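--- STAGE predict ---
source: upstream dedup step, 1 unique chain passed
mode: sequence only
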Amino acid sequence: MKTTTKTTERNVGIDMGKSTLVIFVLEQDNHWQTENTEAGVRALAARRARYKLARIVVEATGSYERKLVYALAEKGLPVVVVQPIHVRQFAKAQGILAKTDKLHASIRRLYAIKKCYLTEP
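--- STAGE serialize ---
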């Protein structure tokens, strides 16, 4: 028998771009964009710090994610950096072939949940 429990934890996926961040929150089926600037990163970190987060998933891009990862870690938020090839293979195995920023953010979040990543800032 499968038992489910309600949780207030949120799982967040972020699609990194040179100038834009696309954020997707699973439990709220909510997404939005912010600029990938110092001010945008600080605002995102402050906004997410208000919620009980299970994990925030970001793809390793080589450099675009660094400011965001540091800002989230400074706030004590559970950030996980994943390899892009693993996320793409996971999406393909799920039958998800479309490519949009919102979908990428959603896939990252789902990938971390299914892989049961433990998080440490």
